[in-house]
Amino acid sequence: MILYYHVYYLNDNCYLMKNSAAAKCFWMLFGLLLFFLSCTDRENKAEVIKGGLAPNFKARTWDKSSLELNTLKGRLILLDFWGSWCAPCRKEHPELVKLYEEFSNKEFKNASSFEIISIAIESDSIAWQKAIQKDNLKWPYQVMELTKDLNKVSVPVAQTFGVKQVPARFLIDEKGIIIGINPSIEAVRTYLNAK
């Protein structure tokens, strides 16, 4: 007869159990605990998918105004995550500025307007403000999320949208539905022209 032993630790004490009903019960309960913890974690993080509802967030813009995504329903939104330190982000800004100038005053069939919400992940607010001015980012919705570690995109709004790196973009329609994840600026332009 083969005997299996299970080792477990409780309050810094080591216990050895034979392959018994107690051992099986222990491991079954331990497995259930891990399962429920992983399920609870998933419930707290909304999965952001194309065709899904964009999660709401609240933030402060650079002029200290309050911003809540849900209050912008009825508008077409391009949510743009970037950083003043991010060369690819900054390289795309001239095209983003052109897009905003082209569509910010356009009338749409089912939407009241087009807005860009820029969310900068920064460790330095002065560098962020200088980048906004230098890159001529004209839209009013400029948000900075402060972080100590730029290698980790661990700020609340970015985590809400599942952003792992910048640049990252989400195109949101007038109903609050995500219709594009990381679309090119040209794809956004094509979509807006069709609206």
Bin the strand percentage.
Answer: 25-35%
Low-confidence runs: 37-45
Summarize the amount of helix as a percent range: 25-40%
What is the average of the pLDDT values?
Answer: 81
Describe the structure.
With about 200 residues, the chain is α/β, with parallel strands linked by helices. The chain folds into two domains: about 40 residues, no CATH class; about 140 residues, Glutaredoxin (3-Layer(aba) Sandwich), CATH 3.40.30. It has five helices and nine strands. The strands form three sheets. Strands 7-6-5-8-9 form a five-stranded mixed sheet. The protein has a two-stranded antiparallel sheet with strand order 1-2. α3 links the parallel β6 and β7. The longest helix has 24 residues. It is globular. The N and C termini lie far apart (about 75 Å).
Give the helix/strand layout.
Elements lengths: L4 E6 L2 E6 L2 H24 L13 E3 L5 E3 L7 E7 L4 H17 L10 E9 L2 H10 L6 E6 L9 H5 L7 E5 L5 E4 L3 H10 L1
Parallel strand pairs: 5-6, 6-7
Antiparallel strand pairs: 1-2, 3-4, 5-8, 8-9
Record keyword descriptors for this entry.
single chain, 195 residues, alpha/beta, Glutaredoxin, 2 domains, two-stranded antiparallel ribbon, 5 helices
Summarize the structure.
By secondary structure, this protein is α/β, with parallel strands linked by helices. It contains 5 helices and 9 strands; from the N terminus they run ββαβββαβαβαββα. α2 (87-103) runs parallel beside α5.
